[in-house]
Amino acid sequence: MVTTMKEINHFFERRQVQLGMNFGLARMEALLTKLDNPHEAQKYIHIAGSNGKGSTLQYLKEILLAQGVRVAAFTSPYLIRMNEQIKINEDEISDKEFIAAFNELWPFIQEMDHAGNGPTQFEILTAMAFSYFSKQEIDFVLMETGLGGRLDTTNVIKPVLSIITSISLEHTNILGNTLGEIASEKAGIIKSGAPIISGVTAEEPAKVIEEKAYSVGVPYYQLGKDFHVGHVKQGEKGQSFSFSLGDRFIENVDMQMLGRHQAENAALAVAAVLLGMENIDEKSIRKGIGEAKWDGRFEKISEEPLVIIDGAHNPAGIDVLLKTLNEHYPEYKYRFVFSSFKDKNYSLMLQGLEKEAIEIIITEFVHDRAEDAQTLYDKCNHENKSINKDWQEAIREGRRKTGEKEVLVITGSLYFLSLVRDFLSRS
């Protein structure tokens, strides 16, 4: 039994090192059985994808809140503290509730450890979310996958609606070496009775998802075919877009988050509420999209110098980051502070940055999956690269160097950004 969040943090850190990522649903199902299957008590919207899961969930949540719907959300990873991952409406689970949820599971964790099939850190956290949500009055739970779909810990649920945001080459050692193979893993969340909304437009992965929907017998709606984004316009404080689905057309939807990809993520949420729910009015759609924000996604931290943090954690994310920089700061030069996990394709990520950077500052952070700075530095081919193993000093160095008409961009890992954002908020 634990009594403090510090104890739980320490337990989870050790657990991650000891067990790491271990895919499959057997342990999760066993743990939930011991808890009397709390995940069966709610209506779920399940969201998978290589990029855009968190943003799409946020748009969807804000639309539902504007409509007066009571919503729970399970997301990962967190930026500042674990409580962020388990929310009802806008409220994080409290420390007291988090500790109680953990202690409810503790005897079963010990029992499974003793039997040699101990649950991973993410399985425990997911089970805590299920248990906590089952005790609340909730209309919908928005559930984001951790990694993949078919064998992801969250894939024990029976959703009423599923969303796949995007497909790109990521975790190829686990999910597959082609977009089609990765799409097949993500499409594992498609289940009978739950229509699928897809933002995947590339032919190979889109075909895989469509065929899975057809085999399961559920309606399939694809961005660019069944619903559309148009007239994306940049403004001083954000951007706007127009949405169409059949004979439904919504013009000039204002939003805070920047980049065409964010308009497309928002469109997935709009399509989801129009196709999967009743009586969602346009006023709620506009209010929800307009109020949605997602920390760590092309987030401006300061003006002088201009500092942006972005959770680009794979090559597709880097491509989107660079496109958004060119859209919003076309006359600026870009300096990057970069760090990454070992299991990411950081070689391709660095190649993307090298095309646009005036300098790349390589650093590292403490995590069992983090790549060391020297390895990243050796993979970087930019003519103006430097290495600073102290990530805080690397950021200070980047800020000192960044002048007028320049942007300092800190990127490479969402976990890294959780450290960075906390550090920048105090400095």
CATH class of the largest domain: Alpha Beta
**Rg computed from alpha carbons, rounded to a whole number of angstroms:** 21 Å
**Binned strand content:** 15-25%
Strand order of the largest sheet: 4-3-2-5-1-6-7-8
The averaged pLDDT comes out at: 92
- Largest sheet descriptor: 8 strands, mixed
CATH topology of the largest domain: UDP-N-acetylmuramoyl-L-alanine:D-glutamate ligase
Number of strands: 17
Task: Give the proportion of residues in helices.
Answer: 40-55%
Enumerate the spans where pLDDT stays under 50 for 5 or more consecutive residues. none
Q: Structural class of the helix and strand makeup?
A: alpha/beta
Total domain units: 2
User: What is the terminal separation in angstroms?
Assistant: 36 Å
Based on the coordinates given, report the CATH architecture of the largest domain. Answer: 3-Layer(aba) Sandwich
What's the name of the CATH homologous superfamily of the largest domain? Mur-like, catalytic domain
What do these coordinates show?
With 427 residues, the chain is an alpha/beta fold. It folds into 2 domains: 5-291, UDP-N-acetylmuramoyl-L-alanine:D-glutamate ligase, CATH 3.40.1190; 299-426, Mur ligase, C-terminal domain (Protein-Tyrosine Phosphatase, Chain A, Alpha-Beta Complex). The protein is 42% helix and 19% strand. The chain contains 15 helices and 17 strands. An 8-stranded mixed β-sheet has the order 4-3-2-5-1-6-7-8, with helices on both faces. A 6-stranded mixed β-sheet has the order 12-13-17-14-15-16, with helices on both faces. A 3-stranded antiparallel β-sheet has the order 9-10-11, with helices on one face. A hairpin with a 2-residue loop joins β3 and β4. The two termini are 36 Å apart.
